[in-house]
Automatic annotation (TrEMBL):
It comes from Alexandrium catenella (Red tide dinoflagellate). This is Sulfatase N-terminal domain-containing protein. It comes from the Eukaryota. Gene3D superfamilies: Alkaline Phosphatase, subunit A.
Amino acid sequence: HRDYRNVRKAIDWLASPESHAAPWCIFLPVSLPHPPYSCPQPFHSMHNASDITPPRPRGSGKPDFHELIRRYRRLDALPEAEAAMRSLHAVYQGCVAYADWCL
C-alpha cells in the first residue's frame, strides 16, 4: 500500500545522513482512512460489523452533519442500510488502525 511505502521512505530518509545536513520540514500525508475504504489484511477484517455501535442520537439544538450526509446520499434508502453502514464502519476502523500502524 502506498501509505506504508511513503512512510518507510520518510523513515529511511530521516535515518540517512542527508537529513542532518540542513534544516528541513517533512509533509507526509496518508490516504487512509478515506474512500475507497480498503486496507491490507489483517486490518481490513480486524473489526466485526456486529460489534459496531449504532450512531449517537442527534444532539438537541445542534446541526447533525452526518444526518445531512445520510439524507443527501440517500443512505437510508439502501436495503439494509444500517447493516451496510456497520460493515463500512468496521472496515473504516481497520483503515484507521492501519494508518496508525504505518506511523
